[in-house]
Protein: 3-hydroxybutyrate dehydrogenase
Amino acid sequence: MTTLSGKTALVTGSTSGIGLGIAVSLAKAGANVVLNGFGDASKVIADVQQFGTRVGHHPADVSDPLQIAEMIAYAEREFGGVDILVNNAGIQHVAAVEDFPVERWDSIIAINLSSVFHSTRLCLPRMRAENWGRIINIASVHGQVGSVGKAAYVAAKHGVIGLTKVVGLETATTQVTCNAICPGWVLTPLVQKQIDDRAATGIDPQQAQHDLLAEKQPSLAFVTPPQLGELVLFLCSEAGSQVRGAAWNIDGGWLAQ
Ligand code: NAD
Structure:
């Protein structure tokens, strides 16, 4: 197992779903973890603390650059700084372009894309000074292909992959790496809402879940947060140190079609 003892990881959007799974994997591997996200953090902190490393939580709304700066200052003050930055916070909204609410577009771009720029620019100076760091952006298959109704999400995730390439190049001669992970369907609250929306049209919920997978994901099985956590650990390992600027699919075959 990768030993991340002595390292501190900041995982945005880690009070739920994929971010929580990644936070657990990082703590299991020995990292101290700064959690972030909405909702009651006390149970989530307890879940991540069970592996004996230090765990904190900062409630920054990552749509606000000032709150991102406060979160990173908290990590520096309380944990000595961020060695592993996992940009995971994200939201979704489904509507045709001509009906897409302008404020939802702005929020998705702020949370899913601009926050990655802000946390990266604020964490990089220390990583460069330490000459070690990992920046891992949770993009999506929607960073590489489109789907109807997801204009803002697809635009933001394509942007994340572009930003990942640039940061990967700008750090290429250092021990800092920057990569994106592109999951297919993962059964989290973000996706459950899309299944519920289908079921609301009168389809049986099990059938709605099957249809969602069958349309895009050839394995007909969800990717899981622990599988994503293991991929994050690989990218943090010495074996992963020459993976740079990559967009790594973990998608049950979605992008092979
Ligand atoms: P989720 O809804 O389960 O969790 C989202 C997390 O982000 C929560 O902790 C929430 O509190 C936090 N969050 C939301 N807005 C925030 C804000 N403004 N500031 C701070 N935190 C905020 O979603 P998930 O499915 O776990 O998604 C996590 C990431 O994975 C997202 O970037 C999403 O785009 C990406 N992703 C998800 C899937 C999937 O199938 N679930 C597939 C590909 C990519």
Observations:
- The chain has a mean pLDDT of 97.
- The helical segments are 17-28, 42-49, 65-79, 102-130, 151-170, 189-199, 205-216, 225-236.
